[in-house]
Amino acid sequence: MKKLIVSIALAASLFVSGRGFAADTLNGAGATFPYPLYSAWAYSYEKETGVKLNYQSIGSGGGVRQIVNRTVDFGASDDALKPEDIAKDKLLQWPQVIGGIVLAVNVAGIKSEKMTLDANAVCNIFLGNIKKWNDHALQELNPKLNLPNKEITVVHRSDGSGTTATFTHYLDEACPAWHDKVGYGKSVDWPAGIGAKGNEGVANYAKRLGDSIGYVEYAYAKQSNLAYTLLKNPAGNVVKPTLESFAEAAASGDFNPEAHFYTWVTNAKGANAWPIVAATNILVAKEKTENNKKVVKFFDWAFSNGDKAAKDLIYAPLPDVLKNKVREYWKANGLY
User: Which H/E stretch holds residue 47?
Assistant: First the structure.
């Protein structure tokens, strides 16, 4: 997987440098959230069809800018665009896969799924109100852990990010203080911490910096061997990040094709739903019908052939009923 990611990143750098590619190449840019999965799909698709996919993992904000400017074949964003923005920029949008965001921690002696956090604790850590790991609120959530008297280093995204939009939307819904002081979006005015670019950057910082905490898509935590916490969800249950808990959260979404599938699935009410979940979305320029057919062909191939790779990387594939909604959306727009 490391060799694969390096090869895709190299291809992306060549694209950026303007050296160009053959006609049987699709160029995309955007969310770092699904990058490990899109890399795996790209590798298999090229072996099977000869068509290359060059994907720049630059963040959702950059992906939206590039498709709005028509400099790529498709953009990718975890923060779904509102219907009015889709209309204004003459785009089409659909969900491709479901992923979950976890809180990665680097605290001596703390392994994955041994620490529990709730929305209030996460909120106050990222607001800078909880400054040490042995704070009473954290110790109360984790009575069996011997938490250290160490300053917490918060790591957050520095770039425009759909992962940030999802994470801050989770806090905005669950924590009044966050709603009043910060709000949500691809970029926010962070009250505390240090910034890093991309899920890759946050994962690397969290791995290097002792006593740190950062939010990353689950695949990055797994690939980087980062410890991650459990979370208490809105139902009051302590849950693990799993395919099943991601899928249960996604089932709460109102994926309406007439609204270009715009919806949020954070803080879902399901008993076992993971609270920080998002669908990652594909964006194409509405007028580029023939080019979009090639993009759709790849992502439809992924719907039919990519579920195993998704599950291996702990992304939840869309349920068949939603995949078929997307296919009907493609048909309605002359792409399928």
Answer: helix 35-49
